[in-house]
Write a structure and sequence with these properties.
The chain is of the alpha+beta class and 125 residues long. Helix content is 50%, strand content 17%.
């Protein structure tokens, strides 16, 4: 990456914040062209996640990344509803967790309730 994702995200949000609704689409197209010019279009996922983090913080919420073994479970819905409406909750399915969930809050706090971690703890002692 030519620039870190946080710099791209801050720049885009500042420009979008100072523009009107009509100019948003044009700004986003120019931003995509800039990413392509810098060779960073492949890293759009990282930049998008950083934009979501910044928006959540701006609104007084948190960015929650939840990794679950099965998305359709009743527990996934209950855990996702546990957070505030201002929080941004992203759910990813990782079958290698076997069962349970792993939750990251603002990339600072981690709560690992996965069966994979329990097996690892059991056999590491």
């Amino acid at each position: 990456m030519k620039y870190p994702a946080k710099i791209y995200a801050n720049a885009l949000l500042k420009v979008l914040g100072s523009s009107g609704k009509q100019a948003e689409w044009r700004i986003i197209k120019r931003f995509a062209a800039l990413l392509q010019k810098n060779g960073d279009l492949a890293n759009y996922g990282k930049i998008s996640s950083e934009i979501e983090r910044l928006i959540a913080r701006k609104n007084g919420g948190k960015f929650i990344s939840m990794e679950v073994a099965q998305k359709e479970g009743e527990a996934t819905k209950k855990v996702a509803n546990f957070f505030s409406e201002r929080d941004i909750v992203k759910v990813r399915v990782l079958p290698e967790l076997l069962a349970g969930a792993r939750i990251l809050v603002d990339d600072e706090r981690e709560f690992d309730f996965s069966f994979k971690k329990r097996l690892k703890d059991l056999f590491s002692k």
